[in-house]
Amino acid sequence: MLNIKFIIDNPELVKTNIRNRNLSLDIDGLIEIYRKKNELQAAVDDLRNQRNIINKQISAASQDDRQSLIDKSKKLKEEIAQKEVGLDELSRKYVEELKKVPNISHPDSPIGKNEDDNVEISRYKEPTEFAFTPKDHVELGRELDLIDFQAAAKVSGARFYFLKNEAVLLEYALTRFALDVLLENGFTLVSTPDLAKSEILEGIGFNPRGNETQVYTIEDSDLCLIGTSEITLGGMYSNTTIDEDDLPLKLAGISHCFRTEAGSYGKFSKGLYRVHQFTKIEMFAFTHPDKSGEMHEYLRQIEEQLYKELDIPFRTVDICTGDLGGPAYRKYDLEAWMPGRHNEDKNVAGNWGEITSTSNCTDYQSRRLNIKYKSKETGKTAYLHTLNGTAFAISRTLLAILENYQQEDGSIKVPGALQKYLDFDVIN
Known about the structure:
Blueprint: H1 4-9, H2 11-20, H3 27-60, H4 63-98, E1 119-124, H5 137-143, E2 147-148, H6 149-155, E3 162-163, H7 166-184, E4 188-191, E5 195-197, H8 198-204, E6 223-225, H9 229-235, E7 240-243, E8 249-258, E9 277-287, H10 292-310, E10 314-318, E11 330-343, E12 348-360, H11 364-369, E13 371-374, E14 381-383, E15 385-393, H12 394-404, E16 412-413, E17 426-427
Parallel strand pairs: 4-8, 7-13
Antiparallel strand pairs: 1-10, 2-3, 5-6, 8-9, 9-15, 10-11, 11-12, 12-15, 13-14, 16-17
Helix pairs in contact: 3-4, 7-12, 8-9
């Protein structure tokens, strides 16, 4: 979350940022709640001080004065209790409203309302061209017995799937490929829990409750199924102070991810693109505040390296303010070319689809989770910066491989980068 002192000192900047993010929040109301909370806290502290003084006087008072002092102490106790009820309510409301305020956006982030306003900044290869009409991954998966959506719907419901045969081996090849690259780059590998406490999700910036939540909650518990290992990796260091010499701390998490995908039923959501469960390898970094911009570019370069080695056409886009998540200061997406998408607006086969993202969240998450670093020069502590980036969301990467590597005879070539993990180079 943002520092309330920053909000008070820069109200117009915060309001402009909120408008640029296409949100509506009452910043003046938040500041007023904060002021009232502090005033009431001061009043309660003053009453407590008065009562402490009186309680000390009671033991030394004469018999005649003692009862009067006891009565005053009781009255103050009742008044304090009444005010504490109001203070608790104001404190709750203050935290609730403060958590709604998004991070400040990077000055170079494009200003816009939605994904249509994102800006392409680079491209690797042009869209794949075929001498035949390409199929989508759903048809390819059915014909080659790689994916079974119907059986999964019977067992688990819509937006689940069974991977079968070579697709299972491809999943593990992709996982090992990503982990090998991240190991070479000095990441610590972590296999994380698939569940986390609500307070950790809130700290990372997810809403674990309510109609708009994108996570599943476990009944009669404070646990949620994670939507990304960003949650568990960040939560590992909640309420922790890290020595500056140990920064940057780079983690690579592998986990299952679960998402409700509430309201996500667009024309490009079919098949593996938008599912309720998938495996993901996630990068997470803790850095010195002066180094987070550099780390953000580094995470983006790793994402680009992975897809270049798979030789899948993609473009990198700078996410506009209206499409940024609340914790993100700046965000890049990689969008792969997906030949199986039919773009009805242009009446052509193929379109771009998001496959990875990387975000610099500055100190937005570390303030909520109380993660700090200790300066080796001054010995003082301060909030560090956190960043995240997708290595592979396996389901979407499989989609991109199947559709881009399909052959006219219906077979699928295996990307060269994965062949060393497999004993086949073609799926037929």
